[in-house]
Amino acid sequence: MPPLSVAALGWIMVVLGVEPSGSTWDVTIDATGWALVALGWQRLVRAEASFALARTVALLACLVALARLPSAPDGVDTFVDVLSLMLVALTLAVGAGALLVCSRAGGSATVAGQASFLRWGAIGLLVVEVGAAVGYLVEPGLGDLVVAAGTFNLAFAAWFTLLQLFSAGRRWAKPAAAPRTPPPE
Length: 185
What we know:
Layout: H1 3-16, H2 24-42, H3 51-66, H4 74-106, H5 109-136, H6 143-167
């Protein structure tokens, strides 16, 4: 299975596995999805080095998803939920940025344009989420803005999933072969 297909499968699990209650099943689906995203992007590190950062952020999102398993006080629970939303936007921004660089190098202007839009859109959502989360400490009504931005996260993540599936079979989206060393003489 092509690396971007593996990553897209992970994104599908993350997007479809959203459940406000954060049940064990939801956390398991999210963590597995993030692990698949990291695995897919790991396989592309040789093709494009910026996938290494994207993989690391996906692994961090996996760990934060697992942090939702144990029962925690409301404040901690809310913090972990908001952090999870922010990590969706951050992972999307970094992953779309890596796909942008890779697709540009491969000569795919269409994918590069979509990846650029998604990257900047995710960065904008991240700024809104961070601002609303900090503002929530002063004005609790801003919690609704975090939730609204989280909804846009999911829409952008679904779009990014389709873009990765569209790009999966392309020559530039395949793992680069290991450099060949000449046999000893």
